[in-house]
Amino acid sequence: MRILLIEAFYGGSHKQLADLLQEEIEECVLYTLPAKKWHWRARTAALYFMQTVPANANYRILFASSVLNLTELIALRPDLGKLKKVLYFHENQLAYPVQKCQERDFQYGYNQILSCLVADIVVFNSAFNMESFLTSIGKFLKLIPDHRPKDLEKIIRPKCQVLYFPVRFPDVSREHDKDPESFFKVLLKLKEMDLPFHVSVLGETFTDVPALISTSKKMLNTSQNQDLVFCWLRQDSVFAFVITDIFSEAKKALESSVLHWGYLPSKDDYFQALCMADVVISTAKHEFFGVAMIEAVYCGCYPLCPNALVYPEIFPAEYLYSTPEQLFKRLQNFCKRPDIVRKHLYKGEMDQFSWAALRGKFRSLLTTEPREDL
Predict the structure, then answer these.
(1) Among 140, 179, 204, 265, fewest CB within 10 Å belongs to which?
(2) Is residue 151 located within the same domain as residue 246?
(3) How does DSSP assign 225-236, residue by residue?
(4) Is the pTM of this model over 0.70?
(5) Measured in whole angstroms, how far is the alpha carbon of residue 71 from the centre of its chain?
(6) Is the residue at 126 inside a domain?
(7) Is 228 in contact with 335 (CB distance < 8 Å)?
(8) Are 229 and 278 in contact (CB under 8 A)?
(9) What is the domain range of residue 268?
(10) Domain total for the chain?
């Protein structure tokens, strides 16, 4: 094996990428920790992998997500320090909101900065992710009371590149808090106006890190007179806050419009649900890429996303909204005129996010230059 893949939080998009690389790239070996207790993974994973990853003279590449404290691992395992070290950012801690600024919160971002300094190549899943991280380094380090390091952005930036998360699209015939309050408030307002729609909420929860996916589906009858179906995505996120009572309150208030409420364990069933949906809605307050939104659009959903975060990088302007009022007006119009979305052809480009389009770039990333003497 020439490529060592390490994933300290083996779940969600982290798992998807690790599995994809292991399946599609030759000579890969994967070591993981379960997607539980993210904060402890960030604190202690390096020590665990120090003991569990066996020494192997054939390794040439080390690929890890930024959950791992790469600096600690390299210090504990000098043999791995000789490898070409690639650090992949699904999300970054400098731009991720915290409810209270605490010393431990500083440590997570600080660890990511140190890992960047140790890595040979730093890869981000979007330009938004990269720029929000790099441009926050200076401000972030001002939290240090004195003797602050300087010019770290200038040192790290030349190592950085953007390589979109590779989505393995399904074979279909047509996949900080994401702010469920905003979504359900809009639906309740539509309900008060007696506008026709249905909704299904599907959820997945890691042990103590909620990662709710909420979707809506069309009825099996595909008549143009069928009520519109909304799809709200609580995309997989390893950093999340506690789910509030808004879910139970909304379920009760929307009861007559609910088609399904619960987790779909099968990926095929999940994609089928997306294929039966009309509109996919994000009310995210934080997003670095948005795999689930892209999957939903590929499955035929009309996307509505905040005009912020990574979304302007991914979706054309007509699919963005700036305020909850704008979102409500768009959905109100769609309820009255479902043909608008059912006859709509998406105007963006999905192929650029596919594994087929990104395969070559990842293969190049996971190769060593001939001059390297390990």
Answers:
(1) 265
(2) no
(3) TSPEEEEE----
(4) yes
(5) 24
(6) yes
(7) yes
(8) yes
(9) 180-353
(10) 2
